[in-house]
Amino acid sequence: MGLANEKYMSLTTYRKVGTPVSSPVWVVDLGDDKIGFYTSSGSGKAKRLAHTSKVIVQASDSRGRVKDGSEPIEATAEVVSGEQLD
User: Fold this and answer.
1) Which of 16, 21, 60, 80 is most buried when burial is the number of CB atoms within 10 A of its CB?
2) Strand 34-36 vs strand 54-60: parallel, antiparallel, or unpaired?
3) Among positive and negative, which fits the CA dihedral 54, 28, 45, 80?
4) DSSP letter string over 23-83?
C-alpha cells in the first residue's frame, strides 16, 4: 500500500535558500509507481519546483498532518503542462 492509495499527501518543496515548505495536495495515481498532483502554475509549489525537483512526500490528511506510521519519501517532481498534462 503506497501513496497512490492515499487521498492526500504532504508535499515538501524547497525555497532557493533551502528552506523546506510543506503543503497538503490531493494524490493522483498515474500508474507505473508514479503519483501526481495538481497546482496552479503561479503557485508557490510550482515556483519552488522551477529551481529544484527535489521533494519529500508523506501520507497526510487534508490539512497536511502526516499520518501516524507513514514514512517520508524522498522523490523528484516534474512540472508538466499541455499534452503531457492530458
Assistant:
1) 60
2) unpaired
3) positive
4) EEEE-EEEETTEEE----TTSHHHHHHTT--EEEEEEE-TT-PBPTT---EEEE-----TT
Q: Measured between alpha carbons, how far is 46 from 59 in angstroms, rounded to an integer?
A: 20
| Nearest one of 66, 81, 84 to 3, comparing CA atoms | 66
Do 61 and 30 form a contact (C-beta atoms < 8 A)? no
- The string of pLDDT tens digits covering residues 4-39 is 999 999 999 999 999 999 999 999 998 888 898 888
C-alpha closest to that of 75 among 54, 46, 51: 54
C-alpha cell at 51: 529551481
Backbone angles phi, psi at 68, to 5 degrees: -55, 135
| Amino acid identity at 15 | R
Cα distances from 5 to residues 31, 38, 63, 74, 84, in angstroms, run: 11, 17, 18, 18, 23
